[in-house]
Protein: Cupin
Organism: Saccharothrix coeruleofusca
Amino acid sequence: MGRTSRCLLTAAAVVGLSATAVPAANATPGSGVSGVTILQKTIGDTEYIVQRVTIQPGGTSGWHYHTSDAFGIVEQGELVHYSSDCAVDGVYRQGQVMRERGGPDSVHFGRNPGSTPVVMLAFYYEHKVGTPLTVDAPNPGCDF
């Protein structure tokens, strides 16, 4: 698979904010989040997944991490993204791309502060077949 194809498939996978989530003790599940799988391609034991994720006004992703790296492209709205140190590590608007590292050391949280839904394409690439896209995580100590 070429680099361009891999990047496109990756971008489509970032959106699994609430779809395919695994609960954790003291998890902080999202609210107002939905996801629809647009594309799913399996090559050997690796999946390439694209999802369209929608976060309603005032909605959040909840604290979570992904089991593989992911990219997201915002199609509509504004997403405020927080890292596990409680700091805003990005504000993403229409046409902007974000990257999220996979693994439990990359816990993060997304919020829609606006009055219109956030719609984005999430691209998960090099995702291992049989593992969840998203794993819920406890709040790392933030006051929100």
